[in-house]
Design a protein that fits this description.
Blueprint (H helix, E strand, L loop, with lengths): L33 E4 L13 E2 L1 E6 L6 H7 L5 H8 L1 H4 L11 E4 L4 E2 L58 E3 L6 E3 L4 E8 L5 E7 L4 E10 L6 E2 L4 E5 L10 E6 L7 E2 L1 H7 L5
Antiparallel strand pairs: 1-3, 2-5, 3-4, 6-13, 7-12, 8-9, 8-11, 9-10, 10-12, 10-13, 13-14
Helix pairs in contact: 1-2
Length: 274
């Protein structure tokens, strides 16, 4: 059944930019990076192949996330390395970057090399293996909703962005297209559109608690279906009221909005550490 109430008040993208591993958001960075590259001296041979150090500065534009910037500029180590290099500028929450911030990009060294005499034919692309439908489950019968993803916005974060005045779940920073799994066995009571949650799935568990998985690209289960712990129930995305792709995970004592409890503490009580 749909959740009652609103999860998040609508707002412009300029008010909050959420970091996430952002595939398929459609956002386009307007600010162009300024790249400075060291040049070989006149005494060096014209066809030298020594590595040239490359360092770049990038100005955050509306709609940017650390993941999107890291992917677009091939930052070695991804968004985590980019955040570490700019932690003093960004602050303690990597999910919040403001337009106008100047970030340092730590790109891999660039090597100058002569053009090949003959262009080689591109190798055929390898077909990606399909994602596993289930994941590892603890002895207690519980598991994480996604892999070892970091938490962006924590539970009970305060602010006017949410109708209740605080965040009712936790946000896992994952790419769009990431498989989402049921944390325990249960029965699906809702799967589909759910207001500001976008597409979500709500599952009732044997202990009387309910788990919600929000902002999905689409569910892969249906109402009334029985699921097992670790079973894939949906694909992560950026539907509903969001600033970027992520998984909103919520635990409730009833199916309705406003009955939330701490989801990290709930999983910890069942032997699952986030």
């Amino acid at each position: 059944m749909p959740a009652k109430g609103q999860h998040r008040k609508p707002r412009s993208l300029n008010s909050l930019t959420r970091v996430c591993i952002a595939a398929g958001t459609g956002g386009v960075a307007l600010a162009l990076p300024l790249v400075t590259v060291g040049h070989a001296s006149a005494a060096e041979p014209a066809k030298a192949s020594a590595a040239v150090s490359a360092k770049a500065q990038y100005t955050v534009a509306p709609g940017d996330t650390l993941s999107k910037i890291a992917t677009a500029h091939h930052v070695k180590g991804g968004w985590k390395a980019l955040y570490k290099a700019n932690e003093k500028v960004i602050g303690t929450n990597p999910s919040l970057i403001r337009p106008g911030l100047h970030l340092t990009l730590n790109t891999a060294p660039v090597k100058a090399a002569p053009a090949p005499a003959k262009k080689a034919a591109p190798a055929p692309a390898k077909k990606a293996a399909p994602a596993a439908a289930k994941k590892a489950v603890s002895s207690s019968g519980y598991t994480k909703p996604v892999g070892d993803a970091a938490i962006g916005t924590p539970y009970h974060a305060q602010g006017s962005n949410w109708s209740s005045g605080y965040h009712t779940g936790v946000d896992f920073l994952v790419w769009s297209g990431t498989p989402v799994h049921s944390v325990a066995a249960g029965t699906v009571i809702h799967a589909g559109a759910d207001g500001s949650y976008g597409n979500d799935v709500i599952i009732r568990h044997a202990d009387g608690k309910y788990t919600l998985y929000g902002h999905l690209t689409n569910p892969v289960v249906s109402v009334g279906q029985t699921v097992t712990a670790g079973q894939e129930i949906g694909i992560s995305g950026a539907t509903g009221n969001v600033t970027g792709p992520h998984l909103h995970f919520e635990v409730r004592t009833t199916p309705d909005y406003g009955s939330d409890i701490d989801p990290v503490a709930y999983l910890a009580a069942h032997g699952v550490t986030i």
